[in-house]
Amino acid sequence: MAAVLRSACRCVFRPALHRRLEMQGMCTAAGSSVLDKLSFDNVALRRLPLDTSDEQGSRIVHGACFSRVRLQPVLGPRLVALSGHALSMLGLDADAVRQDLLAPEYLSGSRLLPGSEPAAHCYCGHQFGQFAGQLGDGAVCYLGEVLAPSTEGVGVPNPTGRWEIQLKGSGLTPYSRHADGRKVLRSSVREFLASEALFHLGIPTTRAGSCVTSDSRVLRDVYYDGQVSNERCTVVLRIAPSFIRFGSFEIFKAEDEMTGRQGPSAGLDDLRTQLLDYVIDTFYPELQQAHPDDRVQRNSAFFREVVQRTARLVALWQCMGFCHGVLNTDNMSILGLTIDYGPYGFMDRFDPDFICNASDTGGRYSYRAQPSVCRWNLLKLAEALVPDLPLEASRAVLDEFDAEFDDCYLTIMRKKLGLLRQQVPEDKMLVTQLLETMHNTGSDFTNTFRLLSGISHSYLGDTEEDVLQNIVNQCASLEELKVAHRPRMEPRELSMMLTLAQANPVLFQFLNSRKPVMQELERVERYRELSQQSESDYLDKQRALWVKWLDKYRNRLSMEVEGATDIEALATERLNIMKSSNPRVVLRNYIAQNAIDAAERGDYSEVNRVLRVLENPFSDEVNILDDIYSTDRTVDESAEQMASEGTAEEGSPSRAFVPYDSKPPSWAVELCVT
Q: Where is this region: Disordered (predicted)?
């Protein structure tokens, strides 16, 4: 029977590849699945250099942007969740996919989609500021480019008429290094939910169409502490116009002065030019048309577009309290998309030094640092484009980054504050003072912005007092702030660092110790201040700080109604703008963790429930959340049933349910993502 199915396979790729896939037993009969109707046109593999080697295992790949790979099946694949919105970009109906018995096999890489050509992309990257050499798709498989019924769905233009689809977690590639090419349930659920969450928040991002887990297992040391767990292999279907990144151009990098490493295709300038031409022709065709005879002008215009898109992207992150966590050059999209979700996090309590990645002990990728890091990464891209774009030309373009970021950031913040009719220079200071107040009072970032829509240009008595009290209720308790500012260095260690700073300032600077020491000194001072306050004094101070800022905000709102003939209509417009700019729900870590815990017990309903909420993050409609806010519901209603059936995982706790739009539970601060 298998031979009959293979002979009937509707394969449109190269015969040699077809024969290889026949040996794997992965071709399927046409029409046996709704996924068979996907039509592929794999332009990237035709226009970019392809590795001709069939050698298996990790290796350095010279002179190629892609390497062919073999899909590796998993045991017992089954659906965890589908994004109907993302799948519709491919012309697929989620209900039909859900009922398709072959869908889990296709979407896990256990069966090959007709017309797809599995490959892995070669790229390099600067990781935590150091050039790492060849990296590449170590756990990701490019399947191909699907002809699209729609070219909208990621937040940036897609002029190609195609969507590249990938499987993340599908097995070994030449770029897997010492890893196994697999992803597990917890990381896959996080990537799936984040991809969809950011899109519905209006942030450009790659998309996730499906999450499929399996009975195949891999060992993982989650916290790098020697405690190994046996976890389920899980695969996510990712969708974007392209997954080419800054690091794609670094494979041509000459030997790095700091690390001694070089790109695997160092010196192959013609291939870099080929890659650059492909990216501009395919994804920025208007630039090719505008500069048909001047390559330097064309390349400069391309770099300017990447700079502007990146500046706008990170401005959106900052305004939504989103922290990426691993902003290496290999995690920066050439199209201005949020890409590669790992230890990301949305801020709960506002802290400009918020670090979502527990591995980032130096805070290189903290919330505050994201704009400057993105600018630094753009400089690395500029260096990688030489000589196709002279560095003096790209540096001049890069100088435009700060202005683009500031303009976009302030524009979004004005909307979040309902400042619609006037733009005054003092608005920037008003935003700065708001964030300082939020920081000093430990305010919840998302909920505080949402509550500000209740403030009017004129004092409303009891109504506004209620809003003020709700804002204060979103602030951290005295004990919570003391825990947050508890010194991290041992007193003896801090004393030694201060002694070093006085005795040998040059060595102190060389060790890059100034920033963490200054932050530690600020933490010590803040902890001392908090320790000297009583709970009642602290609450009075919180309230006074908010009253002071709200008076300034109300004065600014009064400027909005000057000369207005219909103040009520203006107030309604302001309320609508603010509610569509300030989400009610974001993907906080505790929400993701609850979904993961339930999924690891065999119950995927919470993943799907969270997805449904994240698809409507700005909504106040009760019917969207009517089954969420029942007081007697726990995260996993079927935990006991799963345990009785023997399908539950061990070690995944069941916690009391906390509404998704509430202040996070106390245990949320203990979550650690690496």
A: 635-659
